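Model it.
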Amino acid sequence: MGTWRGLRVAFILGSLFMILLIIVYWDDVGGFNLYPLQEPKHQSLHSNSHPQTTTRPSHSTPTGRAQTNSSSAAPTTAAPEETRGSAEEQIEEEGKEKQEQRKEETREDERVERSHAAVDDREQEARKQRIMDVCSGMDAVEFPGRTRAFEQIPNRELDHLIVDDTHQIIYCYVPKVACTNWKRVMVVLSQSLISPSSGKPYTDPEAVPPDLVHNSSLHLTFAKFWRHYGSLSRHLMALKLKHYTKFLFVRDPFVRLISAFRNKFGRPNEDFYKQFGSVMLRRYSNVSGSLPETAAEAFAAGIKPTFQQFITYLLDPETERESIFNEHWRQVYRLCHPCQVKYDFIGRLETLDTDAEHLLKLLEVDDMLRFPLGARNRTAASWERDWFAQIPITMRRELYKLYEPDFELFGYPKPESTLHQ
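Modeled.
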């Protein structure tokens, strides 16, 4: 019995020993693998992380050959990964370069904008200083109302100062100096006109019908203050003049006159024909008999005022004895009172685009709207000599004296060639 138990123990120990030998043997040759399907993936990642491979004893077994093939294939699978990584790095680097380039372009644009703004500011200071010098009498140019106080200006002469209380703006409009488009801007800012299509106030100046903006009921002017505020009107005007931003736009005086004549008498205009054109024709033309009743009939018959008759009308003392100059040819100093109103911005039609951009920024409304890009007045300064060619020199010089304050106040050079040739 004891012998039989000893044999059984020996058999079990021997079996365990043989199993242990088999396990050690298969593990050594790499043939025992619990996850054979995942080996290629792990082998590839391992090869990428650790290029050096461990050398194992060589065995002429199929499994050994498979292991060797897997190891030799690892560098081949690593190459596309390295190439892809390099391409991604290159793309990222190019992106950074482009981003830096855009930043540099932005900085350059800001530098240019600041430079332009500085130039614009210096130009504005020069224009304002010019007005102060002329109004103080330094240039020895005399004109009516130069030394009077603002309180002495009659209410009826303040009808060109448009007020926008919402944005604290005062605009003095000058006919034939982009005033239609600036009135469109003021209509949008004051929300004084409703769009029939939307039922809401216009938000785009260019969408505002140009023929509607000249309706005086749309605009609050200083001339209307007495009706609204009574005895407080002058006090309120003084407060607004002190705290609001005030601007106007001007133009070469002679070119403005040419523009006014072309617009009002160069084509049929019933109102201007009846009120002014017929007067010029009766006074200064050789037309016999009665004049045509309408502008259309007059133009059809070839009867219309000439530019010389227009100039004669302006120089005739009888004209203003009958009625004050129409706003289209009234001098700017009589419309806007630059010696009494200290304007913060003086724009010029000759530099309208840059001045408009500068002004909208100054008013802090450049994010709300843009100045309309509609039709611009096409009367060019280069036409001046041709238009005045038939006007006698003496009349040209008289006309200059009539508009000399505007030339001097707003820095337009004396038209020597027009006055002496």
